[in-house]
Amino acid sequence: MALITSTAFGILLLVTTLAISIYAYFHWSYTYWKKRKCPFLPPKFPLGNSTSFLTKTSNFTLETYRFYNEIKKRGLKFAGIYTVTRPVLVVIDPDYIRDILSKDFQYFVNRGSYHNEKNDPLSAHLFNIDEPKWKPLRSKLTPHLYFRQDEDDCSRCLIDAMDRSANGRKDIDIREFLASFTTDVIGSCAFGIECNTFKEPDSVFRRMGDAIFKMDTLALKVRSFMNSKMPRLSLKLGLKSMRTDVSNFFTDLVHRTVKYREDNNFKRPDFLQLLIDMKNATKDSDSPFTMDQLAAQVFLFFVAGFDTSSTTMNFTIYELCRNPDIQEKARKEVMDVLEKHDGKLTYESLVEMKYLQQVIDEAQRLYPPLVTLSRTCVKDYKLRDTDIVIEKGTPVVVPVAALHKDPEHYSDPETFDPERFSPENKSLRHPFTHLPFGEGPRNCIGLRFGLMQSKIGLASILRKFRLRISPTTKMPLHLDEQVLLLKSVETLYIIAEKVTIKENICKSPWLGEICVSPETRRSSPRPGNSGRGPERWQPYLVRRCTVRMALITDSIVFDFLLLATTLVVSIVAYFYWSYTYWEKRKCPFIPPKFPLGNSTSLLAKTSNFTLETSRFYDEIKERGLKFAGIYLVTRPVLIIIDPDYIRDILSKDFQYFVNRGAYHNEKDDPLSAHLFAIDEPRWKPLRSKITPTFTSGKMKMMFDTVLECSQYMIDAIDKSANGRNDIDIREFLACFTTDVIGSCAFGIECNTFKDPNSVFRMMGNSVFIPDGVIHKLKLILITKMPKLSLRLGLKRVKEEISTFFQDLVQRTVKYREDNNFTRPDFLQLLIDLKNATKDTDHPFTMDQLAAQVFLFFVAGFDTSSTTMNFTIYELCQNPDVQEKARKEVMDVLEKHDGKLTYESLAGMKYLQQVIDETLRLYTPLVTLSRVCVEDYRFKDTDVTIEKGTPVVVPLIALHRDPDYYPDPEKFDPERFTLENKSSRHPYTHLPFGEGPRNCIGLRFGLMQSKIGLAMILQKFRLRISPTMKMPLHLDKSIFLLKSLEKLYVIAEHL
């Protein structure tokens, strides 16, 4: 039993290790473009930028459109993507496209198409093969693609078949008719075989032609996906690109036909004979042209000639039916040209059909058979005017379908308009914006044959029939995502009416002229429009294929388990890969644990970072380090504990650490985008604008307002003094600071002592208290994974708080501006700033104004009341300190005629020491955070912090370090005498931060706290009520430092 358990565990461990290794490899692969400083589209595990496999399609159309549009949107000319782990460069700029396909072709000779000559010889044809085999074969084949009379003979079979269904006798499946036509042409030109597919529509040739591009089984889809996305692995696995039945049929057909001709000394002027002659001519050479190679070229000729031409003609007829005026114009040209050539369709007459060529060109613009052009870099290549080097072996893709529909090159690109290809219009466009056959030395070798075949078929039809879409056709058509080439899911049924001289030709002195009256054109509704008037047509809509319930296997349950296991393993692998960050950078670190890294706050049911930062500090200190890396879930964070390094980060090298990295979401949560949270380049201009608000002059201006609010607090305490009631001092202090901020920030008298349930108090209490589990989880996610939170649109500020403050600010500002009312407060300064910048390039908006007012409320109300609460707690615990502070207050007031003024407050030095010592023990913000904005090397080390890395200073632990503060838990204001302060490192006491990004409102906060404490001390002696549960405990459920218990005191009149 133990053996079984051990074996099972070993297998599980092996599978897990393998999965983690695979995942790590994927993630490492996704750094390719970034390391080469090439713009790229962000990939996603495990398919990179490719989604085609997940959407059950081997068609690359949608993806290339998406890549093209995203690259274009970002103003780029090219960008890197990943197909699974394979880096691919997508190029959309016509100049760069010309460089790759033509000008610098020697660097991009190969297509990089998957082929497996050993296991799948038919795949090793001219389209796929690479240098050095490609060029010699291309040069041999090029001279031998020419017009033969067989094509005209095959077109007669097409016309005869259509004639039998014309004039409403039958709806015509035009795609099937055209495919039969091209099958007969290729059968004759390539194999010398009369296929007679019009007489035998179920012939094996037609069935094999239809089957070539079908991906109708899961195995075929997986194989196609592997060949496309991971060709090297596919080659090692020996995967084929051909269906076995198709490969066997064509290989056997070629072998039998060649054998028959050679055995019977039979020759025929066709493509196959050319290849037979090449084979025989090279059989004794060092590089013979083998039967497998011959079969591959014949197969390519069949595929390219049969499918692409029939598809082009099908789409052309679709557009001609939808645009009867264009159909009539093309027909007129065909009739005019044929009249000049005695009614005969010849190579020369075909060349003269210029407008028909424009029609085909436009059809191939909207519906290029191949949606992309691919090349592979064969030696390192530097993109001109850049520092980017494409490495040898890198695939390069041109999204042809998207390029053809770029409105920058083709205005109103969805409209079918052959005039785009008139000589005048073509000369106005970049020549590399229309590439249905590619361009340069490796363009389509059979393009002339394909165009000629298409023109013969279309000209033959137009001279005989007028076409319209049958009502039985399901409109609109949708692209078929199950096949490689561009095709429609629905069958295009048309009605063909024979063209007669009476109906269409107005006699002229020469031949006459085909014409359709303007009235007829205007009154002819397009299919499906029912004569309702003009309708903007989209040529094709993309439809998702029907998805069966089981995605991978035949069991949806097993599918779910497989996908769930893959997801779990992938997540675990990602976590463990993330946990190598600091080790790879040779930076000391505290070992993390899955899944929270070094963070335990989620498991401890707390979003408070206090205990954790103290633990990190102690462990780093114990190991004799000055800094160390940790992980918050998977996010690497650097903890700094050395005062010299802290000074470097906060002040000396501030330019590397300008941002706080505080979560803010300006789009969904505008109140969060305040001065404390925002980053450069917006922070510095705003800071410089707001800084004058907190000068000594502005402090004096608001002093009397704060003093007046303090008197309300004294009156409230007086009513409960001398044992009449225990006083909830935290509540009293919160009411005091609420009144102060309400008045100084909003110009509103809150009267919270008279109305303790005022909306201001309720909002103040609610700001930092999470509402339920969901809100707690949201705050944890915001703290630990800010990038993900931003993508999810998570808000830090509660909805009701945001609505309240935004509405309050907007109403107050409107009232002041409408009534020309001003008041010497913080809000007025921001209104003046808004009005002064409204006509500038960077106006100070109402949302920004509301955010700063909200910050002023939160910082001024909560931190000051908390500081005073803890100060009174320690003064009650240390009555000698309380008495000394009171004596100083009384002595200073006596010097100023008993008046508390801005100047008298400045003279209360010991009271300042008391507050400083409180801020040491009970720092409102337990950490200082910064984010590295450019790579930074720590002095005297080899450790470099990368751009984007968060840096944290654990203040509460620093403030309680016995190396700086002996007996650190003891409350001792003497630590902050001038003599003692000068003996310590200045960066060991940082309650308001330090450097350019310290707390902007520190002077206001200290003034408010000193006024509140001085007013209480001059009136009352305080002691802790016996009803209090001692000692106080920190509340771990909120962001700022607070006590879990309320502090009840007894106040006695002096």
Helicity, in percent? 40-55%
- Helix tally? 40
Content of β-strand: 5-15%
Characterize the main sheet: 4 strands, mixed
Radius of gyration: 40 Å
- Unreliable sequence segments: 1-11, 53-58, 146-152, 501-554, 603-607
End-to-end span in angstroms?
Answer: 81 Å
Mean pLDDT: 82
Major sheet strand order? 1-2-7-4
Shape: elongated
The total beta strand count reads: 22
Structural class: alpha+beta
Membrane topology: Peripheral membrane protein
Subcellular location: Endoplasmic reticulum membrane; Microsome membrane
Main location: endoplasmic reticulum
GO cellular component, one term: endoplasmic reticulum membrane
Q: What characteristics describe this protein?
A:
four-stranded mixed beta sheet; 1054 residues; 40 helices; alpha+beta
Describe the protein's architecture and organization:
The chain has 1054 residues and is α+β, with helices and mostly antiparallel strands. 49% of the residues lie in helices and 8% in strands. Strands 1-2-7-4 form a four-stranded mixed sheet. Strand 18 (936-937) and strand 19 form a beta hairpin. The chain is elongated, with a radius of gyration of 40 Å. Mean pLDDT is 82; it is low at 1-11, 53-58, 146-152, 501-554 and 603-607.
List the helices and strands and how they pair.
Layout: H1 2-29, H2 32-35, H3 61-73, E1 78-83, E2 86-91, H4 94-103, H5 134-141, H6 149-163, E3 172-173, H7 174-191, H8 204-211, H9 218-229, H10 231-237, H11 244-263, H12 271-282, H13 291-322, H14 324-340, H15 347-351, H16 354-366, E4 373-376, E5 381-382, E6 389-390, E7 395-398, H17 400-404, H18 423-428, H19 447-464, E8 465-469, E9 478-479, E10 493-498, H20 501-504, E11 505-506, E12 513-514, H21 518-523, E13 541-542, H22 556-578, H23 581-584, H24 610-622, E14 627-632, E15 635-640, H25 643-652, H26 683-690, H27 696-720, E16 727-728, H28 729-746, H29 759-766, H30 772-784, H31 786-792, H32 799-818, H33 826-837, H34 846-877, H35 879-895, H36 902-906, H37 909-921, E17 927-931, E18 936-937, E19 944-945, E20 950-954, H38 955-958, H39 978-982, H40 1002-1017, E21 1020-1024, E22 1048-1053
Parallel strand pairs: 2-7, 9-13, 15-20
Antiparallel strand pairs: 1-2, 3-10, 4-7, 5-6, 8-10, 11-12, 14-15, 16-22, 17-20, 18-19, 21-22
Helix pairs in contact: 1-22, 6-7, 6-19, 7-13, 9-10, 11-13, 12-13, 13-16, 13-19, 14-16, 27-28, 27-40, 28-34, 30-31, 32-34, 33-34, 34-37, 34-40, 35-37
